[in-house]
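[User]
If only I could read C-alpha cells as easily as an amino acid sequence. I have put the entry right below:
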Amino acid sequence: MIRVKIKSWTASFRYPTFQSGYQPTLPVPPLSTIQGLLSAARGEIVSFSEIPFFGYVFISNGTGVDLERIYALGKPETDVIKREVLFDNILYLYLPEEWGEYFKKPRFQLLLGRSSDIATVEKIDKVELEEKTNVPVGGVVVPMNSGLPGMVHALPVEFDYSTIPRRAKLVKPFVVLPFPKNIAQRKRQTFHGSLPYDPQIDIGVWLYEGLHGKV
C-alpha cells in the first residue's frame, strides 16, 4: 500500500442541498472527488470498480468565506455570492502500490474541488498499516451501516462523463466525519470495530472495496 500526501491552499466540496445563494462546503471530500483525483492522475476516467481498494483522510486547518462573481444560467447579468472555502488542506490517499507511478507525474492538474482549488503531491510513501480496534476515525465519509454518528448526506459516488453536463452514476447516503481536531472529539468519534491504523496521523483509515464498506 502507498500513502499519497496531497496539499492545497484552498478546497471546496459541493454541499448537495444548496443550489443558489450562500454556498457552504462539505468539511471532507465525497468519493466523487477522489474519483476525479484518480482520473486526473492517470489521464483518463477511472471507475472505482478498477481499484482493489482505496481510502483517504482529509485534514483542513481553517475555513473562510469568499465573495465570488457568477453568471446566472440564461441571464446576461452577473451576481455575487458568498462561498465557504477550506484553507491549508492535506489529503492522504491510501492506494495500491501501482498508483504511485501516476501520482509521481499526474497527467492533468489535481484539484480539491473547483478549478481554482489546485493541489500538489508532496510525498508518496510505502506504508504497512496494522489493524486495530477502538481507533479514532475522521476526515472521510463512511457508509450508513458504520454505526458512527455524524451528518448524513446523499452524495455522488461516481460521475458519468460521457454526457454534458456530467451525471451522477451512483448516489448513496454517507455519514460525513470531519477530522477530529482535539482529544475530546477523538473520544467521541471512535470506531469500535477493526480498522487499519496510521500512527503518523493517529487515525483509523476506512478502506473501501467495491464501494460496499471497509476491507
In short: The chain has one domain: 2-208. The radius of gyration is 17 Å. Residues 56 and 93 are 5 Å apart (CA to CA). DSSP finds three helices and twelve strands in the chain.
